[in-house]
Amino acid sequence: MPVYCITGANRGIGLEFVRQLAQSSDNTIIAATRSLSSDLDDLKAVASPSTHTVECDTSNLQSIHSFVKDTSRILGDKKIDFLLNNAGVNLGSWQNSLALGPDELHALLAVNVIGPAKTVELLLDAGLLSADARILNMSSVLGSLQRSSGPGPRQYAGYSISKAALNMLTVHQSEDLKQHLPGAVVISMHPGWVKTRMGSDAAPLEPSESVEQMLKVLHRVGGEDTGTFCDYSGEAIPW
Ligand SMILES: NC(=O)c1ccc[n+]([C@@H]2O[C@H](COP(=O)([O-])OP(=O)(O)OC[C@H]3O[C@@H](n4cnc5c(N)ncnc54)[C@H](OP(=O)(O)O)[C@@H]3O)[C@@H](O)[C@H]2O)c1
Protein backbone atom coordinates (compact mmCIF):
# COMPACT_ATOMS: atom_id res chain seq x y z
CA MET A 1 0.00 0.00 0.00
CA PRO A 2 2.46 2.67 -1.15
CA VAL A 3 2.09 6.31 -0.23
CA TYR A 4 2.83 8.96 -2.87
CA CYS A 5 3.16 12.67 -2.21
CA ILE A 6 3.10 15.06 -5.16
CA THR A 7 3.55 18.82 -5.03
CA GLY A 8 1.96 21.04 -7.69
CA ALA A 9 -0.74 18.39 -8.14
CA ASN A 10 -3.55 20.57 -9.48
CA ARG A 11 -2.44 20.79 -13.12
CA GLY A 12 0.14 19.80 -15.67
CA ILE A 13 2.54 16.97 -14.90
CA GLY A 14 1.55 16.84 -11.21
CA LEU A 15 -2.12 16.35 -12.09
CA GLU A 16 -1.19 13.56 -14.50
CA PHE A 17 0.76 11.79 -11.74
CA VAL A 18 -2.37 11.86 -9.59
CA ARG A 19 -4.54 10.66 -12.48
CA GLN A 20 -2.35 7.63 -13.17
CA LEU A 21 -1.68 6.74 -9.54
CA ALA A 22 -5.33 7.10 -8.57
CA GLN A 23 -6.19 4.23 -10.90
CA SER A 24 -4.94 1.79 -8.26
CA SER A 25 -6.90 1.71 -5.02
CA ASP A 26 -3.71 0.43 -3.34
CA ASN A 27 -2.12 3.86 -3.63
CA THR A 28 -2.52 6.50 -0.97
CA ILE A 29 -1.93 9.90 -2.58
CA ILE A 30 -1.14 13.19 -0.90
CA ALA A 31 -1.94 15.71 -3.64
CA ALA A 32 -0.35 18.96 -2.53
CA THR A 33 -1.59 22.13 -4.15
CA ARG A 34 -0.53 25.73 -3.72
CA SER A 35 -3.96 26.88 -2.60
CA LEU A 36 -7.14 25.07 -1.63
CA SER A 37 -9.13 28.08 -2.79
CA SER A 38 -8.01 27.85 -6.41
CA ASP A 39 -9.91 25.87 -9.03
CA LEU A 40 -9.35 22.22 -8.15
CA ASP A 41 -12.01 20.72 -10.43
CA ASP A 42 -9.46 18.86 -12.56
CA LEU A 43 -7.87 17.37 -9.46
CA LYS A 44 -11.22 16.37 -7.99
CA ALA A 45 -12.12 14.72 -11.30
CA VAL A 46 -9.12 12.38 -11.22
CA ALA A 47 -8.85 11.78 -7.47
CA SER A 48 -9.52 8.37 -5.92
CA PRO A 49 -11.08 7.78 -2.48
CA SER A 50 -7.53 7.45 -1.12
CA THR A 51 -6.40 10.78 -2.59
CA HIS A 52 -6.02 13.56 -0.04
CA THR A 53 -5.76 17.14 -1.23
CA VAL A 54 -3.56 19.23 1.05
CA GLU A 55 -2.47 22.85 0.75
CA CYS A 56 1.23 23.48 0.26
CA ASP A 57 2.68 26.66 -1.16
CA THR A 58 6.24 25.47 -1.63
CA SER A 59 7.53 29.05 -1.75
CA ASN A 60 6.28 29.68 1.78
CA LEU A 61 7.95 28.07 4.79
CA GLN A 62 4.89 28.49 7.00
CA SER A 63 2.76 26.74 4.41
CA ILE A 64 5.22 23.82 4.23
CA HIS A 65 5.08 23.51 8.04
CA SER A 66 1.26 23.39 7.95
CA PHE A 67 1.38 20.91 5.09
CA VAL A 68 3.62 18.58 7.10
CA LYS A 69 1.23 18.76 10.07
CA ASP A 70 -1.79 18.05 7.84
CA THR A 71 0.01 15.19 6.14
CA SER A 72 0.98 13.69 9.48
CA ARG A 73 -2.67 13.79 10.62
CA ILE A 74 -3.81 12.11 7.40
CA LEU A 75 -1.16 9.39 7.32
CA GLY A 76 -1.17 8.39 10.98
CA ASP A 77 1.39 5.57 11.21
CA LYS A 78 1.99 5.45 7.45
CA LYS A 79 4.98 7.09 5.80
CA ILE A 80 5.68 8.53 2.37
CA ASP A 81 7.32 6.04 0.01
CA PHE A 82 7.49 8.32 -3.04
CA LEU A 83 7.93 12.07 -2.78
CA LEU A 84 7.62 13.93 -6.07
CA ASN A 85 8.93 17.48 -5.73
CA ASN A 86 7.15 18.53 -8.88
CA ALA A 87 5.93 22.10 -8.23
CA GLY A 88 7.93 24.53 -10.31
CA VAL A 89 7.82 27.88 -12.07
CA ASN A 90 9.49 29.44 -15.07
CA LEU A 91 9.38 33.20 -14.61
CA GLY A 92 11.01 35.99 -16.56
CA SER A 93 11.62 33.66 -19.47
CA TRP A 94 12.57 36.67 -21.61
CA GLN A 95 15.64 37.30 -19.45
CA ASN A 96 19.19 36.41 -20.27
CA SER A 97 22.13 36.35 -17.89
CA LEU A 98 22.91 40.01 -18.59
CA ALA A 99 19.44 41.12 -17.68
CA LEU A 100 18.43 39.04 -14.68
CA GLY A 101 15.64 40.49 -12.58
CA PRO A 102 16.46 39.91 -8.91
CA ASP A 103 12.79 39.54 -7.99
CA GLU A 104 12.20 36.86 -10.63
CA LEU A 105 15.38 35.04 -9.65
CA HIS A 106 14.40 35.05 -5.97
CA ALA A 107 10.95 33.74 -6.86
CA LEU A 108 12.43 31.00 -9.05
CA LEU A 109 14.81 29.91 -6.31
CA ALA A 110 12.03 29.98 -3.73
CA VAL A 111 9.82 27.52 -5.63
CA ASN A 112 12.34 25.48 -7.60
CA VAL A 113 15.06 25.06 -4.97
CA ILE A 114 14.12 26.17 -1.45
CA GLY A 115 10.70 24.49 -1.73
CA PRO A 116 12.08 20.98 -2.44
CA ALA A 117 14.84 21.49 0.15
CA LYS A 118 12.50 22.46 2.98
CA THR A 119 9.83 19.93 1.99
CA VAL A 120 12.33 17.08 2.34
CA GLU A 121 13.84 18.53 5.52
CA LEU A 122 10.52 19.07 7.31
CA LEU A 123 9.00 15.75 6.23
CA LEU A 124 12.16 14.02 7.46
CA ASP A 125 12.07 15.88 10.78
CA ALA A 126 8.45 14.82 11.24
CA GLY A 127 9.39 11.18 10.61
CA LEU A 128 7.16 11.05 7.54
CA LEU A 129 9.64 9.63 5.01
CA SER A 130 9.90 5.86 4.78
CA ALA A 131 13.29 4.21 5.34
CA ASP A 132 13.70 3.59 1.62
CA ALA A 133 11.87 6.66 0.33
CA ARG A 134 12.22 7.52 -3.36
CA ILE A 135 12.50 11.27 -3.85
CA LEU A 136 12.19 12.79 -7.30
CA ASN A 137 13.28 16.39 -7.75
CA MET A 138 11.65 17.53 -10.98
CA SER A 139 14.47 19.19 -12.85
CA SER A 140 15.03 20.11 -16.47
CA VAL A 141 17.63 19.49 -19.10
CA LEU A 142 18.02 23.28 -18.98
CA GLY A 143 19.65 22.74 -15.57
CA SER A 144 22.45 20.67 -17.12
CA LEU A 145 25.70 22.67 -17.20
CA GLN A 146 27.11 20.41 -19.89
CA ARG A 147 24.07 20.59 -22.15
CA SER A 148 23.98 24.37 -21.73
CA SER A 149 27.65 24.79 -22.59
CA GLY A 150 29.14 25.49 -26.00
CA PRO A 151 28.10 27.92 -28.69
CA GLY A 152 24.49 28.66 -29.43
CA PRO A 153 21.69 30.67 -27.89
CA ARG A 154 20.93 30.12 -24.22
CA GLN A 155 17.37 29.88 -23.01
CA TYR A 156 15.66 30.96 -19.83
CA ALA A 157 18.70 32.01 -17.80
CA GLY A 158 16.94 32.33 -14.44
CA TYR A 159 15.05 29.06 -14.79
CA SER A 160 18.23 27.22 -15.89
CA ILE A 161 20.14 28.60 -12.93
CA SER A 162 17.41 27.46 -10.55
CA LYS A 163 17.28 23.94 -12.01
CA ALA A 164 21.09 23.66 -11.90
CA ALA A 165 20.83 24.59 -8.22
CA LEU A 166 18.10 21.98 -7.77
CA ASN A 167 20.45 19.40 -9.28
CA MET A 168 23.10 20.33 -6.73
CA LEU A 169 20.44 19.97 -4.04
CA THR A 170 19.83 16.41 -5.28
CA VAL A 171 23.53 15.61 -4.94
CA HIS A 172 23.62 16.97 -1.39
CA GLN A 173 20.33 15.43 -0.27
CA SER A 174 21.34 12.01 -1.59
CA GLU A 175 24.41 12.04 0.66
CA ASP A 176 22.94 13.81 3.69
CA LEU A 177 19.94 11.49 3.85
CA LYS A 178 22.15 8.42 4.14
CA GLN A 179 22.71 8.93 7.87
CA HIS A 180 18.96 9.24 8.49
CA LEU A 181 17.41 6.95 5.86
CA PRO A 182 20.13 4.63 4.51
CA GLY A 183 17.78 3.14 1.92
CA ALA A 184 16.55 6.44 0.50
CA VAL A 185 17.13 7.34 -3.14
CA VAL A 186 17.09 10.93 -4.42
CA ILE A 187 17.19 11.67 -8.13
CA SER A 188 16.82 14.65 -10.44
CA MET A 189 14.62 13.97 -13.45
CA HIS A 190 13.87 15.83 -16.68
CA PRO A 191 10.28 15.02 -17.71
CA GLY A 192 10.90 15.75 -21.37
CA TRP A 193 9.34 18.68 -23.17
CA VAL A 194 5.74 18.19 -22.13
CA LYS A 195 2.46 19.79 -23.23
CA THR A 196 1.46 21.74 -20.13
CA ARG A 197 0.97 25.41 -19.37
CA MET A 198 4.73 25.64 -18.82
CA GLY A 199 5.71 23.41 -21.73
CA SER A 200 3.15 24.97 -24.13
CA ASP A 201 1.15 23.30 -26.90
CA ALA A 202 4.27 23.15 -29.05
CA ALA A 203 5.74 20.43 -26.82
CA PRO A 204 5.99 17.00 -28.45
CA LEU A 205 5.20 14.90 -25.37
CA GLU A 206 1.80 14.31 -23.82
CA PRO A 207 1.78 14.40 -20.01
CA SER A 208 0.43 10.84 -20.00
CA GLU A 209 3.47 9.46 -21.84
CA SER A 210 6.00 11.41 -19.78
CA VAL A 211 4.42 10.41 -16.48
CA GLU A 212 3.93 6.76 -17.43
CA GLN A 213 7.64 6.50 -18.18
CA MET A 214 8.74 8.51 -15.13
CA LEU A 215 6.75 6.18 -12.88
CA LYS A 216 8.46 3.16 -14.43
CA VAL A 217 11.86 4.72 -13.73
CA LEU A 218 10.86 5.72 -10.21
CA HIS A 219 9.71 2.18 -9.43
CA ARG A 220 12.94 0.58 -10.57
CA VAL A 221 15.61 2.90 -9.12
CA GLY A 222 17.87 1.46 -6.44
CA GLY A 223 20.64 2.58 -4.11
CA GLU A 224 23.16 2.86 -6.92
CA ASP A 225 20.98 5.52 -8.56
CA THR A 226 20.90 7.96 -5.70
CA GLY A 227 22.32 11.37 -6.56
CA THR A 228 21.91 10.93 -10.31
CA PHE A 229 20.18 12.86 -13.11
CA CYS A 230 18.15 11.23 -15.86
CA ASP A 231 15.31 11.94 -18.23
CA TYR A 232 11.80 10.50 -18.17
CA SER A 233 12.94 7.34 -19.95
CA GLY A 234 15.74 6.73 -17.45
CA GLU A 235 18.54 7.86 -19.78
CA ALA A 236 21.35 9.57 -17.87
CA ILE A 237 21.79 13.32 -18.41
CA PRO A 238 25.23 14.85 -17.79
CA TRP A 239 25.34 17.36 -14.96
N1 LIG B 1 6.47 20.95 -19.19
C1 LIG B 1 7.74 20.80 -19.53
O1 LIG B 1 8.09 20.70 -20.72
C2 LIG B 1 8.81 20.72 -18.46
C3 LIG B 1 10.13 20.53 -18.88
C4 LIG B 1 11.13 20.43 -17.93
C5 LIG B 1 10.80 20.50 -16.58
N2 LIG B 1 9.52 20.70 -16.18
C6 LIG B 1 9.23 20.76 -14.74
O2 LIG B 1 8.15 19.92 -14.43
C7 LIG B 1 7.45 20.42 -13.27
C8 LIG B 1 5.96 20.54 -13.58
O3 LIG B 1 5.82 21.44 -14.66
P1 LIG B 1 4.52 21.53 -15.57
O4 LIG B 1 4.96 21.44 -16.96
O5 LIG B 1 3.47 20.61 -15.07
O6 LIG B 1 4.12 23.06 -15.29
P2 LIG B 1 2.73 23.76 -15.05
O7 LIG B 1 1.68 23.18 -15.90
O8 LIG B 1 3.03 25.20 -15.14
O9 LIG B 1 2.40 23.35 -13.53
C9 LIG B 1 3.20 23.82 -12.49
C10 LIG B 1 2.64 23.32 -11.19
O10 LIG B 1 3.47 23.82 -10.13
C11 LIG B 1 2.62 24.47 -9.20
N3 LIG B 1 3.28 25.53 -8.46
C12 LIG B 1 3.91 26.63 -8.94
N4 LIG B 1 4.31 27.40 -7.90
C13 LIG B 1 3.94 26.76 -6.76
C14 LIG B 1 4.06 27.04 -5.38
N5 LIG B 1 4.65 28.16 -4.94
N6 LIG B 1 3.56 26.15 -4.50
C15 LIG B 1 2.97 25.02 -4.92
N7 LIG B 1 2.79 24.70 -6.21
C16 LIG B 1 3.27 25.57 -7.12
C17 LIG B 1 1.48 25.03 -10.02
O11 LIG B 1 0.41 25.36 -9.16
P3 LIG B 1 -0.57 26.64 -9.50
O12 LIG B 1 -1.61 26.14 -10.45
O13 LIG B 1 -1.13 27.01 -8.17
O14 LIG B 1 0.28 27.71 -10.10
C18 LIG B 1 1.22 23.83 -10.92
O15 LIG B 1 0.49 22.86 -10.23
C19 LIG B 1 8.11 21.77 -12.96
O16 LIG B 1 9.05 21.60 -11.91
C20 LIG B 1 8.83 22.13 -14.25
O17 LIG B 1 9.94 22.98 -14.04
C21 LIG B 1 8.51 20.81 -17.09
Automatic annotation (TrEMBL):
GO terms for molecular function: oxidoreductase activity, acting on the CH-OH group of donors, NAD or NADP as acceptor. Pfam families: adh_short (PF00106). It comes from the Eukaryota. InterPro entries: NAD(P)-bd_dom_sf (IPR036291), SDR_enzymes (IPR052184), SDR_fam (IPR002347). Belongs to the short-chain dehydrogenases/reductases (SDR) family. This is NAD(P)-binding protein. It comes from Trichocladium antarcticum.
